[in-house]
Design a protein that fits this description.
Strand content: under 5%
Number of domains: 1
Helix content: 55-70%
Order of helices and strands: HHHHHH
Number of helices: 6
Number of strands: 0
């Protein structure tokens, strides 16, 4: 799930305050650590919670995220088929 969040770094920046620098979120070994690093750059911490995930998802550009993350695209296609 966190790798999908990294697929739209602008959304992460709007919620956590810093943009993660990830080229391919699906190749990121530990997406939770990447989100935590982004938050720590602004004096915060990334804490796994549905509330925070929901805030990021609400900010996401799903079209852009789907282009960067094929597993997210597949998941969303299956949901809508």
């Amino acid at each position: 799930m966190e790798a999908w969040l990294l697929a739209d770094p602008e959304a992460v920046e709007r919620v956590l305050g810093h943009r993660p620098r990830i080229r391919n979120p699906e190749e990121c070994e530990n997406p939770v650590d990447e989100l935590d690093r982004a938050a720590m750059r602004c004096g915060r911490r990334y804490m796994k919670s549905w509330r925070l995930v929901r805030r990021i998802v609400e900010e996401m550009d799903l079209k852009r995220a789907r282009e960067k993350c094929s597993s997210l695209d597949l998941f969303l296609r299956k949901l809508t088929s």
